[in-house]
C-alpha cells in the first residue's frame, strides 16, 4: 500500500474518462485518501455519481481556478475537513475552441491569455496557496503533453501553454525543494477525454500514435494513474523537476 496514510487532492474531475479520475482511482487502490475537486456546479453531479459506491466517501470541493480567492477557499475547506495533505494533482487545462481549430498564428490575445491563465498560472497559484497545508515530503504533479516540444497539428496554443507549464514545473521544483516538496509532470500520450474531443482529428492522432509508438499501442488511463502513484509515493523521493513520459515510448521516435 504505497500511499497508506497519505492524503492527496486531485483537481479537477469532470467525468469517468477524466485523467484526474483515473489518478484518483489509482490513489485509492494503493491505500491513499483522496480529496476530489470539480470545476463548477454543472459537473458536481458527475463526481457524485462516480463516488456514490465508495465507502468512506471522499471529500469533494468545487475549485474554480480563475480567481485566487476561490483557490484559497478550497485550501481552507480541505484543511478544516482533513487537515494537512501530502500532495495534489493538477489536471486542469483549457483553451477556447477557436484557438484549437484555427492556425496558431491566428490565436487572439484573449484566447492566448485564457489558455495561459487556466492551464499554467493556475498551477503556480495552487502551488503557492496550498503550500501552507502541505506536509513535509509532499509531492505535486501536473499533466502535460508532447505538443509542448513538437508541433502537433490542431493542438496550437495548448502546445505553447504546456511548454510554459513544463518550465513552471522546473522553477517550482527549485522554489519548493528546500521544503522537501517535489514537483513533477506526467506527459501522457493521447487519451479519449472530454478535453481531447475538442481537438480536431483526434481519432487520427490516436491511430498515428498507435502505429509509431514502440509498444505499438495507445496507453490506458490506468497507466497514467499508476505513474502518478509512483510520483506521489516515497519511492520517487529523489525525483523533482522532471517530465515523466507515459506514452508507450512515442516521444523517443524520430520517424
UniProtKB/TrEMBL annotation:
<keyword id="KW-0520">NAD</keyword>
<dbReference type="GO" id="GO:0006633">
    <property type="term" value="P:fatty acid biosynthetic process"/>
</dbReference>
<feature type="binding site">
    <location>
        <position position="162"/>
    </location>
    <ligand>
        <name>NAD(+)</name>
    </ligand>
</feature>
<keyword id="KW-0275">Fatty acid biosynthesis</keyword>
<dbReference type="InterPro" id="IPR036291">
    <property type="entry name" value="NAD(P)-bd_dom_sf"/>
</dbReference>
<dbReference type="Pfam" id="PF13561">
    <property type="entry name" value="adh_short_C2"/>
</dbReference>
<feature type="active site" description="Proton acceptor">
    <location>
        <position position="145"/>
    </location>
</feature>
<comment type="similarity">
    <text>Belongs to the short-chain dehydrogenases/reductases (SDR) family. FabI subfamily.</text>
</comment>
<keyword id="KW-0276">Fatty acid metabolism</keyword>
<keyword id="KW-0444">Lipid biosynthesis</keyword>
<feature type="binding site">
    <location>
        <begin position="18"/>
        <end position="19"/>
    </location>
    <ligand>
        <name>NAD(+)</name>
    </ligand>
</feature>
<dbReference type="InterPro" id="IPR002347">
    <property type="entry name" value="SDR_fam"/>
</dbReference>
<dbReference type="InterPro" id="IPR014358">
    <property type="entry name" value="Enoyl-ACP_Rdtase_NADH"/>
</dbReference>
<feature type="binding site">
    <location>
        <position position="92"/>
    </location>
    <ligand>
        <name>NAD(+)</name>
    </ligand>
</feature>
<feature type="binding site">
    <location>
        <position position="95"/>
    </location>
    <ligand>
        <name>substrate</name>
    </ligand>
</feature>
<feature type="binding site">
    <location>
        <begin position="64"/>
        <end position="65"/>
    </location>
    <ligand>
        <name>NAD(+)</name>
    </ligand>
</feature>
<protein>
    <recommendedName>
        <fullName>Enoyl-[acyl-carrier-protein] reductase [NADH]</fullName>
        <ecNumber>1.3.1.9</ecNumber>
    </recommendedName>
</protein>
<dbReference type="GO" id="GO:0004318">
    <property type="term" value="F:enoyl-[acyl-carrier-protein] reductase (NADH) activity"/>
</dbReference>
<comment type="pathway">
    <text>Lipid metabolism; fatty acid biosynthesis.</text>
</comment>
<keyword id="KW-0443">Lipid metabolism</keyword>
<feature type="binding site">
    <location>
        <position position="39"/>
    </location>
    <ligand>
        <name>NAD(+)</name>
    </ligand>
</feature>
<keyword id="KW-0560">Oxidoreductase</keyword>
<feature type="active site" description="Proton acceptor">
    <location>
        <position position="155"/>
    </location>
</feature>
